[in-house]
Automatic annotation (TrEMBL):
One of its GO terms (molecular function) is catalytic activity. This is Putative alpha-methylacyl-CoA racemase. InterPro entries: CoA-transferase_III, CoA-Trfase_fam_III, CoA-Trfase_III_dom3_sf, CoA-Trfase_III_dom_1_sf. SUPFAM superfamilies: CoA-transferase family III (CaiB/BaiF). It comes from Colwellia psychrerythraea (strain 34H / ATCC BAA-681) (Vibrio psychroerythus). Pfam families: CoA_transf_3 (PF02515).
């Protein structure tokens, strides 16, 4: 559905590449610009599959790759030539870096006034932290999320997924790009999009943020309905596995208490002072059976109780399988590689996956040839280290 959109992706690591992968899944043509001297660290992650990591090959599927040394003037001219034919530029440098290179928003706008320029950074293009280094953990901390996403008297826990990077930077970046494209379609105007992963993480405080700002109710660890302040929680089985219990509504709570022979808890469901008593009762009850025994019971019941699966188990869960969330993507070395699918379902479109992420700069010659550069000129650029194949 985005087959008429061309994206020049100068980002690295996770946020930008995840955003451009989503757009590539929906048909956009994405050219990834990478440094030949400063390799994207995601390429070197474990496990390695062929010439790069499985993570890199997932994040960069269906994209082309060109390796340019942006510190050289000839590489900057190549970017400016490319941008004449592109709709979107996506970058992830600290504020001011692209300007110093000569390919910031104003410079590229002068070449292509309709360009949409999306900059994803940790703290945004303004403010006292704009030039400060950071990672997902830092953004969640600054955004207030880490302070109440933990157990009482314990430290915050590093999350298994990169919430600020993906739910913040990537997804909000895609929303911004698609919105700007729609606006340009109506007006002909391009624009710059300033995405701060900290901003986006802060905005994820949807319910707690509303309560804090309008009601001066500051959330703390295990103090709210959904952060462990009630029986809405995880419970260990006799063999050390866990079940998630989200039986908040009266009919679900009633059914669960009846199942566990804990009907005496029914009048206490809405009482905040009784939540620890309910949790203690549930903790004792769930430890009476193994994980598999509880699984056999709850699979037949609709009580908002589900097993805590590891990622391998999750990928084999019948709901995940039925939703076709695992796909086979062509890979030059292995033939096919299993990857996470695009989760967006359309009635009139199916996401396409051309190939797993390619080797560094593998499409460079073709890209330069399409720009009209002669073979001798391309050879000279390679010899001077401007481009690497």
């Amino acid at each position: 559905m985005l087959s008429d959109i061309k994206i020049l992706d100068l980002s690295t690591l996770l946020p930008g590449p995840y955003a451009s992968m989503m757009l590539a899944d929906l048909g956009a043509k994405v050219l990834r610009v990478e440094s030949p001297t400063r390799v994207d660290l995601v390429r070197e992650m474990s496990p390695q599959v062929g010439a790069s990591s499985a993570a890199h090959q997932y994040l960069n599927r269906s994209k082309e790759s060109i390796a340019l040394d942006l510190k050289q003037p000839e590489a900057i001219e190549i970017i400016k030539t490319l941008i004449k034919e592109y709709d979107v530029v996506l970058e992830q440098f600290r504020p001011g870096v692209m300007d110093r290179l000569g390919i910031g928003y104003e410079a590229l706008k002068a070449v292509n006034p309709k360009i949409i320029y999306c900059a994803i950074t940790g703290y945004g293009q303004t403010g006292p932290y704009k030039n400060r280094a950071g990672h997902d953990l830092n953004y969640l901390a600054i955004a207030g999320i880490s302070s109440y996403s933990k157990r009482k008297e314990q430290s915050p826990i590093p999350q298994g997924i990169q919430i600020a990077d993906v739910a913040g930077g990537s997804l909000h970046g895609v929303i911004g790009i698609l919105t700007a494209l729609h606006h340009r379609q109506r007006t002909g105007e391009g624009q710059m999009i300033d995405i701060s992963m900290t901003d986006c993480a802060f905005a994820l405080n949807a319910m707690s943020g509303a309560g804090t700002l309008a009601g001066d109710e500051i959330p703390t660890a295990e103090s709210q309905l959904l952060n462990g302040g009630t029986f809405y929680d995880y419970y260990q089985t006799s063999d050390g596995r866990y079940l998630s219990v989200g039986s908040l509504e009266p009919k679900f709570f009633t059914g669960l208490c009846q199942l566990l022979d804990l009907e005496h808890l029914l009048p206490l469901a809405s009482k905040s002072s009784a939540q620890q008593q309910i949790k203690d009762s549930f903790t004792h009850a769930f430890k009476q059976k193994t994980y598999q025994q509880w699984q056999a019971i709850f699979i037949k019941l609709d009580l908002c109780v589900e097993p805590v699966l590891n990622l391998k188990e999750a990928s084999e869960h019948p709901q995940i399988v039925a939703r076709e969330l695992i796909v086979d993507v062509p890979h030059p070395k292995t033939g096919m590689q299993k990857q996470l699918a695009c989760p967006i379902k359309f009635s009139a479109y199916q996401a396409e996956y051309q190939q797993a992420g390619v080797e560094l700069g593998v499409d460079g010659k073709q890209v330069l040839s399409e720009l009209g550069l002669s073979n001798s000129r391309i050879t000279a650029l390679e010899k001077n280290g401007v481009v690497t194949f």
